[in-house]
Design goal:
Number of helices: 24
Distance between the termini: 39 Å
CATH class of one domain: Alpha Beta
Strand content: 15-25%
Length: 697
């Protein structure tokens, strides 16, 4: 048996389960299974009596039997419950999904071990989705007291690939077969960092002999994972700066100076000035710029983008701005074309809706230097779009574009243009260091003067009458209102019904004004018309899903109501809140929710009420939910899949890994020293599996 052997060669797995493991967990080989690390380790040495259990205990383990099963509730609230007893009392077990599997495989009046986090619903102590196994199956590996727990989907469980079974297969590989686990770090680095071998680390991460052995294994594996990510990014960045020479924008000319001195609509903040200087220094360095600009909603990224685009024009180059939606592209076009109207600058808009004749004219002018600034959507990356001399690319809300799409735009020139990617989704420092480790990062961390912070309140359904009274009052004052409903993919039909029903109810309540509805299932023409009516002020209330998260700027809108706020992530709530507070009037964001909330959820919503700082919110979001759930990051083409490290909790390991990688490349920038042969080989393997992120991010 070798690490590269297919997963189906393991005794007991076979082809069918092998296919499930591949589809559900991307496990193809035996090595993939060994790298399927536990998501948690639990101490299973202690057992409790039900009579002594409370909802304040972290985890409990009890022995007993199920008396009966019962389905409770309907629709989304439907759940399977079971009464579990050990003779000292009873406790309720609850399953919201995977219920058929539980009914089929868990039998009443049979002795089981139940493990989980106790909670309280009403007067009852319960455990939601407990780990449950036959008492007779308590195996030898439990004798250490520390047991590894593995993620297992419903489909995996149906195919007998539960956490327990995964543990058994890994045990068989490690201890019943002569499997060779080669070293992946150079000997000198292992000695320097005082690490255990990779083989020992793998064995102790799955079957730790002690808490200390587990800590040693985690330290080694987390470092290795983060180290290679940093080494890869820094190596690519170093390579790019040598290979891809950038256009030298040496001139600050008439376009920039005239606009800055005569037509700038408002004074720049110190943060905006600092960022423009950073971009300016990149543009004249001779190295192709790849810079990420982070700025909270309303911080003034657009004016920074325009001013730096004017530098490109002053040096004889074209500039391009790409936005993820037609609404946002149109908004950029209207804003920028009106700002530069006094100057001799040709600005054009290219989207999927551009008429054929107009499109042909634009394409001809673009290729013949008749257009200075082109603004558009995905239409800009079509093969028939050619530039005369593209020198500067600005990508707005970059997380909405796939990597391949960005690469197409990047390749529109023989030589690479300078690239500025912008996002209004604040990214925590640790995440930015990792995801964009090879990009320079600029931050606009200052809002324009006079902007009032949005007042945010968490309100429960019993306050709905007061909320409606408040909306009536704001409409009478001439303000406009957003009311947002969730539309989550797995509950799409139910969510859509809730939205449409909500719209009907609201239409009956707010008879004094016109309402419009917007969601992603509507035709584009219908969405555009609804948006137009709201932007123009013809409609006073917009009932929508998160399609309005990006690209609607209505200064007169001063109230944002978010229904079922508990179903949104913090970053998404912050993005939605950013749709209001754009005018001079005080704005409000009202988070509507049911009263029964999990402690973590309530904490998440309270954070929204306490701060308007997007970066603080992003940090909190990552610590509460983990980096993989932060809105938009998955779409951004995360260049790695973290298997064991946690960016919220492993900041120190990340910093150490980055510093070690920097030191190695400073000494041996091409990794040609014999002692670094293993590092070079690993980087080559990594680069075979992914696109060159350093070039196109």
């Amino acid at each position: 048996m070798e690490l590269s052997s297919p997963i189906y060669t393991i005794s007991g797995i076979g082809y069918k389960r092998g296919e499930v493991l591949t589809a559900e967990a991307q496990i193809v080989t035996i090595e993939d299974l060994l790298n399927y690390f536990p998501y948690r380790h639990v101490d299973r040495s202690k057992f409790y009596h039900i009579s002594e259990c409370t909802e304040k205990m972290p985890y409990i383990q009890i022995i007993g039997e199920i008396l009966q099963f019962e389905y409770v509730g309907e629709g989304r609230a439907s759940r399977l419950t079971a009464i579990f007893t050990d003779g000292t009392g009873t406790i309720e077990l609850v399953w919201f999904k995977g219920t058929k599997y539980i009914e089929k495989n868990i039998k009443p009046r049979t002795k089981y071990i139940v493990f989980g986090k106790p909670g309280r619903f009403g007067s009852k102590i319960n455990i939601a989705h407990p780990d449950i196994e036959l008492y007779s199956d308590m195996n030898l590996r439990r004798s250490t007291g520390i047991q590894s727990m593995y993620n297992s989907t419903d489909k995996m469980k149906k195919n007998y690939l539960s956490s327990d079974n995964i543990r058994k297969y890994i045990y068989s590989i490690l201890f019943n077969n002569n499997i060779l686990i080669p070293e992946t770090l150079p000997e000198y680095l292992i000695e320097k960092m005082h690490f255990t071998s990779r083989e020992q680390a793998i064995k102790n991460i799955h079957f730790p002999k002690s808490v200390e052995a587990l800590k040693i294994a985690e330290a080694r594996l987390k470092f290795e994972e983060l180290f290679y990510i940093q080494l890869s990014m820094l190596y690519q960045s170093q390579h790019r700066s040598r290979q891809y020479r950038g256009y030298i924008f040496s001139t600050i000319g008439d376009y920039f100076n005239q606009f800055y001195n005569k037509y700038l609509p408002f004074p720049l903040t110190n943060a905006q000035k600092r960022v423009i200087k950073e971009i300016r220094n990149d543009m004249r360095s001779g190295i192709q710029m790849n810079r990420l600009l982070q700025g909270d909603v309303g911080s003034g990224k657009t004016i920074v983008a325009l001013l730096t685009a004017l530098i490109a024009l002053d040096n004889g180059y074209q500039a391009c701005i790409m936005a993820p939606t037609e609404i946002l592209a149109n908004q950029h076009y209207d804003t920028i074309s009106s700002l530069v109207a006094p100057l001799d600058i040709t600005v054009k808009l290219l989207t999927g809706s551009t008429k054929k004749k107009e499109k042909e004219e634009i394409l001809s002018d673009l290729a013949n230097a008749g257009i200075n600034i082109i603004i558009g959507t995905h239409a800009l990356i079509e093969e028939n779009v050619n530039f005369s001399n593209l020198g500067y690319v600005i990508i707005d809300e970059q997380h909405r574009f796939g990597v391949a799409q960005r690469a197409k735009l990047w390749n529109k020139n023989v030589s690479p243009p300078h690239v500025l990617v912008m996002t209004a989704t604040p990214i925590p420092r640790t995440l930015a260091m990792t995801v964009y480790g090879d990009l320079e990062v600029s931050v606009i961390d200052e809002l324009p003067p006079g902007r009032k912070p949005v007042t945010t309140k968490l309100l429960f359904d019993n306050r709905r009458g007061q909320v409606y009274d408040f909306i009536h009052k704001k409409i009478a004052e001439g303000r406009q209102i957003y009311i947002v409903y969730p539309l989550i993919q797995e509950n799409e039909k139910i969510d859509l019904r809730d939205l449409e029903q909500g719209y009907k109810i609201l239409t009956d309540i707010f008879t004094e004004c016109k309402l419009v509805m917007v969601h992603g299932k509507m035709k584009q023409s219908e969405k555009d018309e609804a948006m137009r009516m709201f932007v123009s002020g013809e409609a006073k209330i917009m009932v929508a899903t998160t399609v309005i998260e990006v690209g609607v700027n209505v200064p007169n809108a001063s109230v944002m109501v978010i229904e079922n706020a508990e179903r949104f992530g913090l970053s998404q709530l912050h993005q939605l809140r950013g749709r209001v507070g754009r005018g001079a009037d005080q704005s409000y964001c009202l988070l509507m929710s049911k009263y029964e909330l999990a402690e973590n959820t309530r904490k998440r919503l309270q954070i929204m009420c306490e701060t308007n700082d997007g970066f603080k919110i992003a940090e909190a979001d990552m610590s509460l939910r983990g980096p993989g759930d932060i809105d938009g990051l998955q779409q951004s083409g995360l260049p790695f899949d973290l298997k064991i490290a946690n960016l919220a909790g492993d900041v120190n390991i990340l910093s150490t890994a980055r510093n070690v990688a920097k030191a190695i490349l400073a000494e041996d920038e091409e990794l040609t020293f014999p002692k670094n042969t293993l590092l070079k080989k690993k980087l080559q393997q990594m680069n075979q599996l992914k696109i060159n992120w350093g070039v196109i991010s």
